[in-house]
Amino acid sequence: MPILLGLDTGGTYTDAVLFDQAQGMSGPGISTAADAAHIHGGVLATAKSLTTKHDLSIGLKGAIEAVLPRLPEGVRPADIALVSMSTTLATNAIVEGHGAPICLILLGYDVKSLERAGLKQALGTDPVVFAAGGHKPTGDEQAPLDVATVKAAILEHAPKVAAFAVSGYFSVRNPAHEIAVRQMIRDLTDKPVSCGHELTSKLDAPRRALTVALNARLIPQLQQLIRAVGTLLTEKGISAPLMVVKGDGSLIDQQVALTCPVETILSGPAASLVGARHLSGAESVMVSDMGGTTTDIAMLRDGRPVLNKEGAVVGGWRTMVEAVAVHTYGLGGDSEVRIDEHHGFLVGPRRVVALSLLAHLYPTVLDKLRAQYASEDMMAYRGQFALRQRPLDTGAEGLSEGQMKVWEALADGPVALADLIFSPAIGRHLARLVDRGLVIISGLTPSDAAHVLGRQSSWCTEAAEIGAELFLRRAPFAGWVPPENGRALAEAIVEQVVLQSGRVILETSIAEQAGIDHHHWGTLGRYLVDRSLAPSQADSALVDVALKLNFPLVAIGAPVGSYYGEIARRLRTELIIPPHADVSNAVGAVAGGVMQKVAITITQPIDGVFRAHLPGGLKDFTDLETAAAFARDTAEAEAAAMAKKAGASDIELSHERADKVFEQPGGLKIFMESLVSVTAFGRPALAQG
């Protein structure tokens, strides 16, 4: 039977999984319990390697080299029939506010659009260009495209950005202007470009612009990852097709991902959900995936992932990418332990490098920690370090003189912040490098607390212990009273992780069930949730509070063993931690199928005319049924071609049609619009042995 290789590059670990057969693969989350047992029984080997953000190929090479020697006797790397990978890098970059600088070109938008959908806040200092153009709801031009303005903007900003994002007004009804600008960018530059009509067929111009901007920022990182994997596979003699997990849990060929990497938003969370389904055999459960940077929470109903039809929510931004309905929170094993001026003792959302891991990788860090612990001097930033996270590249050009000096100071490895930051200006330069994802901070994390408490022993326990003691020397504020010693602090960190994790699981559940966002809980709602999650309730309390999660909780991810037993107890639910839970993403990477969807809208611009808004332009008909039939045929051909290009074989098509009709008093019906959708599904095409 075919051998499959699943890969996942997460914020902390890169995972690899070998399977001995492909028959258990299914569509995104579509399987039976027998399929789950089949997949689980097919796991030959798993391996982990630390993710190396400064050079992703190092971590990938470590995971691949660790798992390949465990191939069955007589099986060579060249015999591997499929390689598929998922990644949490896109999710992490959005949550942490990292990403490459981009230029957003808006065609036919009003300047006030920046104030909607969080677009202005998301863009920060990245340039925005407004140009005449765009279309009307009917698909007709609202103004001719201002080619001169667009060309000047491309030439001005190309040297300073890593990618372009283009969004045209009503481009989902006619993408002609977006396509024209995309071609101009490709003719004038070598920069990647992302267009709004490629992401969604739904209306909402500001949110579509937000989505295309966020996605364009991710293009360089995802391209770097995909190319690194391709190079490694070639070096190892693996010529199998390389697939990438999309945000809905389905797969696309690497070439499609390279030209349209926006499809991989929430790739990691989607793969983890598919993997959890196959590993646990569960039908209807809440799935919580705790990684190093984030916790991703999603639902399985009747064996299928619940999809967010309104668009994936990541890091507080509501995008328009249809994906698994994952609620992502900045809480993981490597989240920063901090004291917030307004909220007190907290964990996250920023990811830092655990001190225990840093000292494991750089032994001189332990010497510095010992020196800081022995010193009686007043010292700012004790127990914190800075180090390079990735190399300077095209997306990192334009560093100021001060930023470059900080960058050069980190050339030989981690530097203690106490030695690095000797003025407020240096602190600002460092913060900018961190915001751009070039530099990362190291400090106390839940992973360090687990080392202090003996729940984890992978890295340097002494560094974690000293880090905890140094944290206690920080000046207390916000009413926080420091624990007595480092061990008590570690226990407090674990308790905080339990409370915050329980809170976000309940947030997700309440939002899913009642549509009530946690911002609308009010004082009473927050009290009830926090009271229910408290370690114990006093016997003298007038009112007991007990919120119960009615679905079983499937916990996956490397850190869950340290926290989720207690989390499930406080949620009063069954806990399932399946075998291979720590590599669920890599399992999900080889458990999915290829799925592509095409939607065509039919409108009635004037009486007697039914207009099909096709991928290649507009076509008018005098009869609705004729228009719908043509739209269906076009969508079927387009979806099948997209699925084949995405790497599918044995393609099956399904279609839906939804008509919007307004019924007036007296029974008169007025046609509004019709949406014809076709979904193409197929198995990944395997290498022929």
TrEMBL record:
Domain named Hydantoinase/oxoprolinase N-terminal: residues: 5-187
Pfam families linked to this entry: Hydant_A_N, Hydantoinase_A
Domain Hydantoinase A/oxoprolinase: 208-352
InterPro entries assigned: ATPase_NBD (IPR043129), Hydant_A_N (IPR008040), Hydantoinase_A (IPR002821), Oxoprolinase-like (IPR045079)
Protein name: Hydantoinase/oxoprolinase family protein
